[in-house]
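Moderator note: this is an archived Q&A kept for reference. The question asked for a predicted structure of one protein chain; the sequence and the answer are reproduced below.
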Amino acid sequence: MIRKKAVSVRGMIAFLFMVMTGTLLFAQTPADPENPEKKEKKRFTSPFQAGEIVVKEKALADIESASTTTEITGEEIRDRGDKTLDQALQMVPGVNVYQNTKGNMVFDMRGIQHGRMTMLVDGIPIEEVYYSGGGDVSRIPIMNASRIVVSRGVASALYGTSATAGVVNVISKVPEKLYAEASGEYGQFNNYTLNAACGAPMGNAFFLVNASRIESGGYEVSKKLNLQRRVSWFNKLVQYWAYGKTLDGVTLDSKYNYLLDNDRWNETEFTKYQVQGKFGYRISENVETGISTYYYQNKQRFNSFYSNTNASYSDSSFKWSVPSGTSFTVDDRKSAFVNRDWRWPEDYNYFIAPYFSGEFGDFSLKVNAFFTQQSNTLEGYADQNLMQMSFPSSTYNQASIKNGTYSSYGDRVQSIFLDTLWGIRAYPSYKPADWNKISAGVLFKSENHRDYEKAIDATATNVLSIHGSDRYITRELGAYYFTLALEDEMKFKTPAGQVAVTAGVSYDMQQITKYRKRNNYAILPANIMIDGWIPTADSYIWGTRDSFNPVVGVVYDPMPDFLRFRAAFSRKTEFPSMSMYATNDNALADTNVKPEISNNLNAGFEIFFFENSVSCRSDYFYSKYIDKIERLYNAVSGTNTYFNISGQTSHGIENAVTVRFDEVADVVDISATLSYVYLHVRNDHASFITRGKLLEKTPENQIIAQLTMKFISGTSLTFWGNHTMNQVQYVMRAIPQTAAAEPFNSAYYTTRKLHDPWMLSIKVSQDIWKHFSVWGMCRNILDDYNADPFNPGPGRTFYIGGSGKL
């Protein structure tokens, strides 16, 4: 079977190469002049809404127009060959996409982690219940999306909580006519993608089905990151010499695995499946109902490294801890240089979401119910030999007691997370006048999280003796959330120009309902489930935590189609996630982890030229975070604790120029974008949590550019790329003493500048007849590597592909 698969892939490559070569020979011959798709620029408006809750075009004075919002079109997604959400977000100003140490694709928005974002697919929340936020954004395929709306900073009151940094909404296509399409793409190292979609309107109904498979056999790291460069980064970021060690004296396997991994990067394979379906029925001209469904499955391996040579400070003993003993000779999760080898034997999520949308004169109503479940099974190792587990088992040996708790033993176990989320969103609105629209939002959702463990093999003798080979529960948490919001949109025509104003407020509530965990206290029997600490209520009206959050936005057009001014402000609350409550598992959790408050402000202008063919946009943005929640990792003990720091301030300038000229010299359509972002993010004060005022791995400067040329021959050429600068990482300036207690002093730390990557890609495609297309693509033409040299990412990679449609 394996041999047959290899032959078929080679045959596909040869066929696509011959087709591409032949078609490029007549690439400049005119396409069919009767093809209306080349001339028609007017957008068709579908009568179906397909379950989309907050629709930008339907708002009278929506907050997205007043805030800093980028819309990525389906055409742009196809031009770049983007497959998953992380790839599309790389082209959004102020967004820094990267792969974290677990292999998940995540991003920061203006220095704020995307766990503070609201992530939606057609208005349906996509989130990790335990950790909060959208989780791995590569789980969200976009090959069949019609557009992606990304709002940064200020967000509508109707979204409620969990939008402290912004909102990302992926909006799927709605079939305007019968269509079917399929595509395939193959790249180096057995990277390939298969995608198929079909849909059609059927009288008063429509259906849409799409499916994809994305497989990767890994990648090769940039040739620029050769042995000499890797040794240089190792010496710069792993401060073994500060502890009296030499490079040869560091005998960790992790060191050799990093320095000598010159071919295909080890342990980087994955296979992702996705199926999405929709059905809608128009009951009458203004009333629609339907259902959306989605399923995702992934099997993945990932390999990364990180330095663990920074000293740790304890706020309880007021003492420093430093790497010692076998930290430089034995590979485990406490080593001075850690190799993380992550494996997901199973990772899936799905949702089912019925919806209703109706307009009844001046009143309209949109309702969306949803049920979603996510499960992932993780095996975490601290070495590529798969011998050292990164996480201990929660099953304990009663004969071993340390500091009043049972010590966990090293049985090899899988960690299984099961998250379940269900709820309902309702958005009624009323238009009392042509210039006024009042909208309300009601959101209720219930979340449940369960931790399980399961023995990996027969070496987990203690686990097998107590639990057998089946999975067993180790922790369970439950919570529900409620939001009630009101937003008023107004638009006025004045002698000085048109003014649009949006003002709203939301009441948001969190209620922790249960917390059960496996016992690890020596005063109780081991391996039984006991009640964990549930924080006492600290709310104004209801629940464990609650808050009121206002929003206001203004858009002023003194010269329509030429000059626009806008400004917006919002206050948002991020409640502590279940993982934070579970980690701070004691009575101090009430004071250690309070809700995080963000105050977001933006103000800017936009100028349009040549009938909107050219636009120049500039925005100043400011975000003030109060009681910001941060995680403290103790490298010596290997434990985490969450704290509130006094605050964090993020502000800067975002500039963008967009150009689009059609039928230049009657030969080519040209579109281009160029943006520059300056970001200044600082912690309000240095502490043992932040180490200093600078934020690690946050770029101060970012440049994003894209150029697309589409010729009348059907040939399309797209260049795109980004450049980030001035990311830093903390290292030790001096090694503190560990014997006596002393106040924390950030002077022990300093920063090292990381790499400034240039990422540039190109895609050339050719339409054949009306229904087929072939392309060639090179990602990372300059063969560069990520800012973090210990997680360098793919180097230069080539792809070819083809598609057909009806």
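Archived answer notes: The mean pLDDT is 86.
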